[in-house]
Amino acid sequence: MTNPENPAQPNPAPDLPALAARLRRLPGLTGKADIQAPAAAFPHQPFAALGPAAALGDDAALLPEQNGPLLLACEGLHPALVADDPWFAGWCGVLVNLSDIAAMGGTPLAVVDSLWCRDAAHGERILAGLRQASEVFGVPVVGGHTNLQSPYDALAVAVLGRASGPVLSARAARPGDHCHLLIDPAGAFRGTSLCWDAATTAQPGRLRRQLALMAELAADGCVHAAKDISMGGLVGTAAMFCEAAGCGLQLELAAIHPPQGVALEPWLTCFPSFGFLLAARPEQAPRLAERVAACGGLLLERMGTFTEERRLVLRQGGTQEAEAGEAIWRGTVPLTGFGALS
């Protein structure tokens, strides 16, 4: 060993006990103990048929080969939700990504998460929500990142899926298509939030059937475009749908029926456990209604028609003035910036 300051001189022998003591205190080493929390939360070995390399603990997840295109979704959870309702934040981290995969007619394969917390107890509650959602929906958590010594609390989750049939894209909606609301009305608002919870107490079989429905609708051909209702609620999602498709949409408020005891405005703005906007041609409507009815427990409402004019309009009907409606979004003003392809 040579001295870097004087290569001609050998380096002095290190004080081995002192060096070992410093290395044992290395933050990059001691911080790895945080991984014990997810290791305890997810002790299962997904895709065990692939052998030991498919178990948790390697540098990347090993997944089975897939036929058809892959879908990849990622969501960051709102900081207030992570702080105030950590178990539900973990649950939602899985749920919202599964909905994103389903919105494109896909089937989820695996989940990864990135968790940053100020203390272990808070992180454990988030991991418990992640694990329960993973088990209920039957989609394994196969890896991620955990830091329980962070100066802040944050959670992001990603899901990999595949499309074994036609892909549903919001860009495929066209003027003249009917816009349908597909939603699970059996639930309640969680606390004082605008999160409509129709899932945490539902039977796993029911939730898995609902999740699989979107891929079935795509394969059946009774829907050709869709979008998951996000934190922007029904109205915000409708505006994003229009922007992506390069269309407009007239939403008829009288056609939207909230659950009993729920006012219209929170129903228009809430984040639902299961909620999608669908685009279907008029002749597809009977088959669509039949397939949704067979799933059971879901509400399907035709609430508007896509138009050539690129603006989202709320209409109540009944008078000439009301028929003109109120514009919520105009295509001349970017919303997400992901407009229609030219």
Write the layout of secondary structure elements.
Blueprint: E1 2-3, E2 6-10, H1 16-24, H2 27-30, H3 36-41, E3 70-76, H4 79-84, H5 86-103, E4 107-116, H6 120-137, E5 141-147, E6 154-162, E7 178-183, E8 188-189, E9 195-197, H7 204-220, E10 225-228, H8 233-245, E11 248-252, H9 264-269, E12 271-272, E13 275-280, H10 285-295, E14 299-307, E15 311-315, H11 320-324, E16 326-330
Parallel strand pairs: 4-5, 9-12, 11-15
Antiparallel strand pairs: 1-2, 3-6, 4-6, 7-13, 7-14, 8-9, 10-13, 11-14, 15-16
Helix pairs in contact: 5-6, 5-7, 7-10
Q: What structural keywords apply?
A:
342 residues, alpha+beta, 60s Ribosomal Protein L30, Chain: A, Phosphoribosyl-aminoimidazole Synthetase, Chain A, domain 2, 7-stranded mixed β-sheet, 33% helix
